[in-house]
Known about the structure:
By secondary structure, this protein is α+β, with helices and mostly antiparallel strands. The protein is 37% helix and 26% strand. It contains 15 helices and 23 strands. The protein has helices at 4-12, 21-31, 48-67, 81-86, 88-94, 120-127, 175-196, 242-246, 271-280, 306-322, 337-346, 357-362, 383-408, 416-425, 438-448; strands at residues 35-37, 44-46, 71-72, 78-80, 100-104, 107-115, 139-148, 162-172, 201-205, 217-224, 230-240, 251-252, 258-259, 262-269, 297-301, 328-330, 351-355, 364-369, 375-379, 410-412, 429-434, 451-455, 473-478. It is globular, with a radius of gyration of 25 Å. The chain binds zinc ion. Residues 434-435, 437, 440, 464, 466-467, 469 line the site of zinc ion.
Amino acid sequence: MKDERDEAGFVKDIRKQSVDFPGWYQDVVRKAELADYSPVRGCMVMRPLGYGLWERIQRALDDLFKQTGVENWYFPALIPLSFLEKEQEHVEGFEPEFAMVTRGGGKELEEPLVLRPTSETMIASVLRNYIHSYRDLPVLTNQWNNVFRWELRTRLFLRTMEFLWQEGHTFHETAEEAEAQVLEKLECYRVIAEDWCAIPVFKGRKSETEKFAGAQYSMAIEGIMRDGKALQMGTSHFFGQNFSRAYDLTFTGRTNELQHPYSTSWGMSTRMVGSIVMAHGDDSGLQLPPRIAPIQLVIVPIFRSDAERAQIEAALAPVLRSLATIRVRADWRQERPGYKFNEWELKGVPLRLEIGPRDLAKGEASLVRRLDRVREPVKLGELERAVPAMLESIQTAMLTRALEFRKAHTVRLSSLEEMVRHFESSTGFVITPWCQDAACELTVKDRTTATTRVILDEPAQGSCAVCGRPATATVVWAKAY
Length: 481
Ligand SMILES: [Zn+2]
């Protein structure tokens, strides 16, 4: 095509992933129209493509939650400061991140209201009114909402002052039941990450240093991004009776004694959209896994006259009807085909259908995969079967590719020197035996900037890679977002 140089210029606007990963990320998020900065410092505007991804994740996750008996609630976004002060440990971990409302109706408020950074305190305070007896348990709540953290350094989707998430909070009669809940929701997150977003994750417990303030323990899923850094993609916390005790939440047990329920909380946020960008994108832009892509198939008709356009439209009508279950966009704009190809590649649409007069003469169209740009001619009558099958194979191929990438960026090491040497020249996951002493985490962080991500569910073997004492865990280290 004669316009090739101009068309190449379109993607030149994106910085190279291998040269400047953060710059590349920012260019892709903004130029693919996922999100943009807003008039409010640190807050973003999610554009339809970015919000569309979140919507797909939200629906899939909400379905999974409901299958486990969770019900959606809504609680106020404003929380009296005193609620947060009750749980001292909670406040210490959070106070610098609070945004507070101190005036309303033209007057100073008697008590400042905090824009929720998370809702544990509000929910525990409210549920006091509904939980009286063991018969009222368990209570499995979830809410889809926005939360606020006073972040100084922000990055679209990864860290913003306001973001969207779901926060689940559950209350149980026994510790066993609450702990099972923690694992069950972590598994929901793994399904979303791996089966929907095609991002393989390590699942496990957080160290004492890395756990959520106030939790007895925290669990998380961690994925690897194309720059070899880890991203925490979902967390699930076991609070024991900490919160119930702090908020005076009690119930009458089976033996007529007053007890505190055991509680959990778990969350996944719009950060997931950032993870999809960073786990699959390349120098041409986004690559969206078909299951969550807001547009799964883009049709680019190639025509020079109104007569040709009419012919293609007529041929496509039955095709479009046969693809009713697929999310399709037909691009009839008056632009060069090459320009459209680049734009839809930038936006990560997994499959493209090209059709022009020559294809039409043969009764076929070409399907092109965003994944590897493999082109395949398909008879028009075959598209009904070929498109869903190809989308399914792209989904599988994306997970396989991501798994191979993680495998190539994961090593098992057994000494601090090896770890230091490793992180000097590369990133990725490092798995070692560990004694679980925070001092060893500090040493590694000082020398490499890497932190523990999750403790794997596998037996500890040998001695701690850092201090040489007997290991009590097998842990994954990485430089992280
Ligand atoms: Zn150690």
